[in-house]
Amino acid sequence: MSFESRALETGTGGFAVETERGRPRPAEVFAAGLRHHHLANTAYPIAHRRTIWAHRRPVEEHARLLVQSLTHSPEVSLYVHVPFCERRCAFCEYTVLDRHDAALEAAYFAALKTQLARLTEGLGLAGKRLRGLDLGGGTPSLVEPARLGEIVAWVLARLRPAPGFGMSIETTPKIAALAPARLAAYRAFGIERISLGLQTVSAGLLHAYGREVQQVDHNRRAVENIRAAGFRTLNVDLMYGFARQGLDDWAESLRAAVALGPEVITLYRMRYKGTRVEGEAAEAALSQAVAMAELAGRTLAEAGYHAPPGKNAYVRSARDPGTSAYLTSRVVESVPYLGLGLGAQTFTNHLLAYNHGAATKQLEPYLRALDAGELGIQDLYHLPPSEGMAKMISVSFYFGAVRLDTFQRRFGVALEERFPAEVEFVLGRGLMERAGSALRLTAAGAQSFPGVIALFYSAAVQRHLLGLEGG
User: If you write DSSP's letter for every residue of 13-56 in order, what string do you get?
Assistant: First the structure.
């Protein structure tokens, strides 16, 4: 009897029916991942209509499936999406709105509170332990702090903070530099971690991608204000792998980030899908991104920041995972997480859901759905084990490793048993290695990251990669 059948009969997983056929050969999948390196990444799955659409469930089943999926989980994490920005950067892949005014902000936060109430009261969330709460975007610091404070207070009144619970918020250098009172308000809400979206200090790139609102002289003032507000952890985000970015540009941004003295520096490789410059993807070679990642590793190590191969968060303290409590719980323990707000994502290991706006980036359908008494979810997929596993493993690769104990606990089977050919492939080629309770990337594996991560995709997604042009 297959694992999938056992899970369904014993009720250990709450999965949908498994329909996956045989898996393509690892060598072919690995090569396809490298060829399509802009698609093979942690943003799993891809091409939803071609790969997981058969698992999409009608809106009248959403509440029942969410309750079923969360019943046996004593813990959750929450992400609250604030989609407003001063301007949508050309490289942004996220659900962001160019329009922002007081009336729209009020309408959006009223809808957010409605969605939060329906999730906590209708899905049995009240009383569950909360591992982490992230306020992201967009630019959450663009809205009135009191609105964010209401959301934080609402959540903490209904869910019990777990040991190690933490909250994190995102801001821009401009807002942090020019609005210190906002920072003090966030700290007063109990938020201890703040992430500063620096991205690049290259004047050419800032202009090319429509980010002129960020000025270099904002950066130092932003950090001074963040320190004065008393945040425990400052993270600085940088992006690399742009088609128009050279090693000199990248080195300049790395030096600038180090000079700011944050506790964490997080590196994000440019993902073109869904951006306004998607056509530039063909000009950004994998070798270019690898060279930038290696330069970053050397530069940051010399400055006292370290990360194992494949991990994108560089820290000065070995005790700091580098990520928010919300993201750490997702990556290390695959704790279910719920997304609130426009286009936000929910994943429970058994189902994957996206709120209205995930594809269209339009606010009106989200508002209408909540006005109609719905949960605000546009697409909900009741996942078979192959898709739940692939999603969990993809998220794990934020840390460059898959926790074997977490995988066994979530899916009732050992990783080596479920992916014998793939594990043999990565070990045999020196792409991954066993390290305690984890299977982690080696330096060679980090250089071939898209190929390695594709090995653990579902057969449906692998076949899609293999069938793409050039595959």
Answer: S-PPPP---PPPPHHHHHHHHHHTTTTSSSS----HHHHTGGGE
341: left (phi over 0), alpha (psi -120 to 50) or beta: left
265 touches 84 (CB < 8 A): no
If DSSP codes are grouped into helix, strand and coil, which group holds residue 444?
A: helix
Residue with tokens 């330069």: 295
Dist CA 293 CA 222 (whole Å): 26
Least confident of 119-123, 251-255, 356-360: 119-123
3-state secondary structure of 171: strand
Is residue 130 within 8 A of residue 76, CB to CB? The reply is yes
Inter-CA distances, 68 with 15, 142, 340, 348, 349, Å: 10, 36, 19, 10, 12
Reading phi first (left if > 0) and then psi (alpha if -120 to 50, else beta), residue 200 is in beta
What percent of the chain shows pLDDT beyond 90?
79
Q: What's the mean pLDDT in 401-414?
A: 97
Q: Flag whether pLDDT at 471 surpasses 80.
A: no
Task: Determine how β-strand 377-382 pairs with β-strand 56-57.
Answer: antiparallel
**Rounded CA gap, 329 and 352, in Å?**
17
Please check whether residue 366 is in contact with residue 410, taking contact to mean a CB–CB distance below 8 angstroms.
no
* Interatomic CA distance for residues 90 and 101, integer angstroms: 21
Tell me: pLDDT of 12 over 90.
no
Better-scored residue on pLDDT, 66 or 271 = 66
What is residue 209's predicted lDDT score, i.e. its pLDDT?
A: 80
DSSP H/E element including 57: strand 56-57
Sketch out the chain's domains with CATH numbers: 3-52+389-467 (no CATH), 64-328 (3.20.20.70)
User: Tokens representing 376?
Assistant: 């605000």
Q: What angle do CA 336, 340, 342 make, to 5 degrees?
A: 130
What is the C-alpha to C-alpha distance for residues 397 and 232, in angstroms, rounded to an integer? 26
pLDDT for 469: 61
End-to-end CA distance of the chain: 34
Q: What is the pTM of this model?
A: 0.93
HSE, side-chain direction, 13 A CA sphere, residue 101: 2
- What's the pLDDT tens digit per position in 254-265? 999 999 999 999
User: Considering Cα of 43, then 49, then 54, then 56, what sign does the dihedral take?
Assistant: positive
| Closest C-alpha among 308, 301, 289 to residue 448 | 289
Average pLDDT value for residue range 223-241? 97
